[in-house]
From TrEMBL:
This protein's name: DNA-3-methyladenine glycosylase I
Superkingdom assignment: Bacteria
Organism annotation: Zhihengliuella alba
Entry-linked SUPFAM superfamilies: DNA-glycosylase (SSF48150)
Family matches, as InterPro entries: Adenine_glyco (IPR005019), DNA-3mA_glycosylase (IPR052891), DNA_glycosylase (IPR011257)
Length: 217
């Protein structure tokens, strides 16, 4: 999900249809209701419609999204999405085994790659997290581990302000992953991950995507 800065900017944008401002939803030209952040940029709209919030239960998919959420910290999600193809190429398709084998030379290579976010701590975290992902296979694997923190109920926000940025479960997941050797997995980042892979459904009530994951009735 976009950060607060991007959301604030989007809130001031010209709307394409008759959606009350207090709902945080915009009715697009296709007649579908989306939150403001997914209503203008075609890339964000496609991500919202086709991917965000749908269940991801495979190791590589969860590792990729965990890595991208960490890189997004302090940036807009649109920036990460635009760089996603380059990230995939630079990080060997987010194959945990391949990234776990990265050494100092690979970190320096990535620091010179202008196509991605060149933040040394985040790059090193991606490598460390790949190694932690491989190690976690002995206990069921990353996907099963992350999904075990699914809450008993999901939020039902009707406005943007009602969407939480963390939860009791995301705090617990953050602590548990850190004990397993993961880094850049703070509670807010983990809640964003839980939203992205369908563990919680924070689509606004009234959005055309609400309840479409199949995880929550």
């Amino acid at each position: 999900m976009p950060d607060a800065t991007e959301q604030d900017a989007a809130d001031g944008a010209l709307r394409t249809g008759p959606a009350p401002a207090e709902t945080g939803l915009v009715i697009g030209e296709d007649g579908l209701a989306r939150p403001v952040w997914a209503s203008r940029d075609p890339l964000l709209r496609e991500y919202y419609d086709a991917e965000w919030g749908l269940p991801v239960r495979d190791e590589q998919g969860v590792y990729e999204r965990l890595t991208l959420e960490a890189f997004q910290s302090g940036l807009s999600w649109a920036t990460i999405l635009r760089k996603r193809p380059a990230f995939r190429e630079a990080f060997a398709g987010f194959d945990p085994d391949a990234v776990a084998a990265f050494g100092d030379d690979d970190v320096e290579r990535l620091m010179q790659d202008e196509r991605i976010v060149r933040n040394r701590r985040k790059i090193e975290a991606a490598v460390a997290n790949a190694r932690a992902t491989v190690a976690l296979r002995a206990d069921g694997g990353l996907a099963e581990f992350v999904w075990s923190f699914r809450p008993e109920a999901t939020p039902e926000p009707t406005t943007w302000l009602e969407v939480p940025s963390r939860s009791e479960e995301s705090v617990a997941l953050s602590k548990a992953l850190k004990k397993r050797g993961f880094t850049f997995v703070g509670p807010t980042t983990m809640f964003a991950l839980m939203e992205a892979i369908g563990i919680v459904d924070t689509h606004l009530v009234g959005s055309h995507r609400r309840g479409t994951s199949g995880v929550w009735a």
